[in-house]
Amino acid sequence: MTGSIYRRMGQLLFNFWPYLLISTISAFIFVLLNSASIWLMASFINNVLTDFDKIVQSQLEWASKSTLTTNEKLKYWTNLLILRDTPTESLKILCYAILSVFFIKNIFLYIKNLLLRIVELKLVRDIRDHLYKHIQTLSLGYFHKRHTGSITSIVMNDVEQLQIALGVVFQRLFVEPINILTFVTLLFIISWKLAIIAIIIIPLAGFSIIGIGRSIRRKSRRTQQKIAEIMQILTETLSSIRIVKAFVNEKDEIKKFARESSNYFKLLLKRARLDLISGPITESFGVIIGVVLLWYG
Prior knowledge:
Number of domains: 2
Number of strands: 0
Helix content: over 70%
GO cellular component, one term: membrane
Structural class: mainly alpha
Distance between the termini: 50 Å
Subcellular location: Membrane
GO molecular function: ABC-type oligopeptide transporter activity; ATP binding
Shape: elongated
InterPro entries: ABC1_TM_dom, ABC1_TM_sf, Type_1_exporter
Radius of gyration: 28 Å
Number of helices: 10
Order of helices and strands: HHHHHHHHHH
Protein name: ABC transmembrane type-1 domain-containing protein
Low-confidence stretches: none
């Protein structure tokens, strides 16, 4: 069943392959420029903290060598781009380079996100159209078994969640692996010892995020069920409002709706807590890695 769902989703997404292809290329360029921006920022810090004459001397030594390590080659090429006759001129060129890389990087980030959003919106539109068309072909027996509010919730809310999920899946399947691979490669170029330290710390953050993600998925399913129940109450009340008023049953309907709304709020709050804590956890592990690299590097 799961394989059938993924196959059908793949068939739907295949219709938008030009958008996805350009978005993937833009994501790849963004990751490369992001790595370049980090390297330039490291060069900026190095130029500020290191004596200019020592930098020039190192550059002359690298130029005279026949073979250089990958780290030395990157530093040599960066210095070729940046180094000028005076420290002030060199710092000015470095600042221009950092600004240019960040500007171009954000352009590709915008292209990636825009094309992905177009795919998300078109996919949601097509799925809603297919669902509505399918609903029109169902027998009356189906509508006796399923509540109207539940069907409405599937067409509106569940499909809306699919749009959000598509963006997350694209980020995790295409962007983040390339990002991780690029950063790990950069770490190995700088120092294999520091890269091993980072690789040891990264899985700790991964286990935490995986645990939080599973809990979020469970609460998301319960949230979707709860909003379907709320929509069912709303649909039944509005469709039979004359009966409710005839029997003066407004207070009971208000209490029932308020109870379900309160339960829905509690579920949303629990999910929000997990959503909001994942960012600080990831950032904390990132800071730990950065501090370790700075301390031992």
